[in-house]
Specification:
about 110 residues; Ribonuclease iii, N-terminal Endonuclease Domain, Chain A
């Protein structure tokens, strides 16, 4: 896990680097027998918060940018804020190479 490279790739430098480290830990990694001893938290709580914040930001942007009915805006937001779209963005930023995930889980998602 190269936290300096991640910060450079995403264009944001964390005041508390522990938040970034936790964000890059999948829950399955905590069960690995060879895990790093300093890793004790996974990213699910941060994911919960981040999803809500991202959805709010995208909602506000679409609301201000497009004078369309709610159903249309909801469809646009769903196309933008979903695991496939966010996964592609994460890959472009190189995050898939930095996340700590169990070997079994990595094989299951096709990164093995």
């Amino acid at each position: 896990m190269d936290l300096v490279r991640v910060q450079k790739n995403i264009g944001y430098y964390f005041k508390d680097i522990r938040l970034l480290r936790t964000a890059l830990v999948h829950r399955s990694y905590l069960n690995e027998k060879d895990k790093l001893p300093e890793i004790t938290e996974h990213n699910e709580r941060l994911e919960f918060l981040g999803d809500a914040v991202l959805e709010l930001i995208v909602t506000e942007y679409l609301y201000l940018r497009f004078n369309e009915p709610e159903g249309y805006l909801t469809s646009l937001r769903s196309a933008l804020v979903n695991y496939k779209t966010l996964g592609k963005i994460g890959q472009k930023l190189g995050l898939d190479e930095e996340i700590l995930i169990s070997k079994g889980e990595r094989e299951e998602v096709g990164q093995g």
